[in-house]
Design a protein that fits this description.
By secondary structure, the protein is α+β, with helices and mostly antiparallel strands. It has two domains: 45 residues, N-terminal domain of TfIIb, CATH 2.20.25; 114 residues, K homology (KH) domain (GMP Synthetase, Chain A, domain 3). Helix content is 26%, strand content 37%. The protein is built from three helices and seven strands, in the order E-E-E-H-E-E-H-H-E-E. The chain has a four-stranded mixed sheet, covered by helices on one side. The chain has a three-stranded antiparallel sheet with strand order 1-2-3, with no helix packed on it. A hairpin with a 2-residue loop joins strand 1 and strand 2. It is globular and about 55 Å long.
């Protein structure tokens, strides 16, 4: 595999308070706007949504690759990413991002699965590229419906990535 990989998107304003972005790897354009709190249009993706989506999708694809390599079978993985934005002296910034990974297993290999979730968090390219406080809260269960933070509490790992 090559050492360098290049990615490119194009974004432009189409009219008023909305824009379009596209990339070479996907056939459909994405409509975006500023968040409604900042005068954007309701019902469109925002840059903040896209950043959190990049984190969640990177985590999911990284976990899939690691699970396949490690021959860990699982029945479901849901990744929730939440971010808090606050005003700072320099302007608005993300104060914190929390990634919650809910993993459902068809067997009782929770320890191994938890290690793999933590390894995924360490290896996720997008997360490693950010310099804000990032909290990781993994959850492993046998039943996909049971894997929620209210029902299963696992140790939290905090990283400054």
């Amino acid at each position: 595999m090559d050492e360098l990989h290049n990615y490119r998107i194009r974004a432009w304003w189409t009219s008023g308070r909305a824009g379009i972005a596209n990339c070479d790897s996907a056939p459909n354009a994405l409509h975006f706007t500023a968040p409604p709190q900042f005068g954007g249009v309701q019902g469109r993706w925002t840059p903040e949504d896209l950043l959190l989506t990049a984190i969640g999708s990177c985590f999911a694809t990284t976990f899939r690759a690691l699970a396949e390599y490690s021959t860990l079978s699982y029945t479901d993985l849901e990744v929730e990413v939440a971010g808090t934005v606050q005003k700072a002296v320099s302007g608005y910034v993300f104060k914190e991002i929390v990634t919650r990974a809910y993993l459902a297993l068809p067997h009782e290999d929770h320890e191994r699965a938890l290690r793999l979730l933590h390894k995924t968090q360490e290896l996720c390219l997008i997360t490693r590229s950010l310099s804000i406080k990032h909290t990781f809260e993994p959850s492993v269960s046998k039943d996909p419906k049971a894997a929620s933070p209210e029902q299963i509490q696992l140790p939290q790992v905090r990283s400054a990535t």
